[in-house]
Amino acid sequence: MALGFSAQAESILPQSCSLFKGRNTAMQAPLAMSDYHVALRSCQVQGHSFVALREFKTSNKTYLLITDPTTLKTDLVDKSCLSCEDITLKQLPESHFRGALKQQSQGSFPLSNDGIRHAQTGSKGYFLTVDLCPSHKEFEKNLFGNQKVSTTSNFPVAVAISGGWIAHHQDEFNQLKNQVLDGQLNVTWVNHSYTHPYQKSLPLDRNFLLTSGTIFADEVLKQEQYMISNGLVPSVYFRFPGLISDRKLILELTSYGLLSLGSDAWLALGQKPTPGSVILVHGNGNEPYGIRLFTAFLQNITDMSVFKPMNDIF
Ligand SMILES: [Zn+2]
Q: pLDDT digits over 245-278, tens only?
């Protein structure tokens, strides 16, 4: 089973169409890829519609990163398995995906926390997100090692992962991937940028991805390639470092077919989760206070099924 493989796409597309199907991607050497680029397309297979977001070459074949616009699940599939045509954002099929991108592009573009912060529907679930910003500290073992979490199979969590974290935590990264393969974690892999710029001395409107000289396209697309070459299927979500963005970045993100993931419960900042909240903690060792608060929050949870996969937020 591949990481992030869509069960629905699995039933529609033959196994041989999927890049990772049948591979234990936790054990593989990084995949060599080329010609990675944005390609917005409407694709059909056996009467089912998908939206292609990217195209790239690997293993002498051309592959697409596709999403199901209704479920927002993503997959990496052999281009020859689908019949596709180029579209614009305005030509996306009516769906949760189209609606969310439209809503994102028509926002008020706040500097901080622009994006999905809470369930759009009446969902009473909690949506846990764990940020892995670059850090030389150990992964927070108290998070997924928590007894309630470790005894819940397929515990749903969105992991926002940066290139800088992967580069310095290969062993912990492989452990995470193995926890997915073992059926312990159900991870939605979220792009958290390639270099995740940050300087303590700079004001927020010139910090993180608003840092002078930052090339946003590289931060998004290089990290996607890094994730795929390391065996992950990127989701349609992007978490801005520091939750800091502006109108220009949000509109550029929209043009890539990605959704900004904010939070209304960044625990270490004192924000308390309410039913439907996107909860934010750091798993990179930089914010142990947030992990302690999450541990305390878990003590009051009697039914772990209140935690939902990110795609259920619509
Ligand atoms: Zn971060």
A: 999 999 999 999 999 999 999 999 999 999 999 9
Whole-number pLDDT of residue 3: 53
Q: What backbone torsions phi and psi does residue 18 show, to the nearest 5 degrees?
A: -85, 135
Rounded to the nearest whole angstrom, what is the distance from the C-alpha of residue 131 to the centroid of ligand 1?
Answer: 6
Confidence (pLDDT) at 21: 78
> How far is ligand 1, taken at its centre, from the CA of residue 220, in Å?
14
Separation of CA 46 and ligand 1 centre (Å): 40
Which parts of the chain have pLDDT scores under 50?
1-2, 4-8
Cβ–Cβ < 8 Å for 222, 163: yes
Query: What's the gap in Å between 195 CA and the centre of ligand 1?
Result: 10
Angle (CA) 259 177 62, round 5°: 60
| pLDDT (0 to 100) of residue 12 | 83
In three-state secondary structure terms, 62 is strand
278 C-alpha to ligand 1 centroid (Å):
15
Question: What DSSP assignment string belongs to 238-277?
Answer: E--GGGB--HHHHHHHHHTT-EEB--SEEGGGTPPP-TTB
In order of their start, the domains of the chain are: 7-91 (2.30.30), 96-313 (3.20.20.370)
Output the pLDDT for position 120.
82
Q: pTM of the prediction?
A: 0.95
| Whether the Cβ atoms of residue 26 and residue 181 lie closer than 8 Å to each other | yes
CA of 174 relative to ligand 1 center, distance in Å = 20
50 phi/psi in degrees, rounded to 5: -125, 165
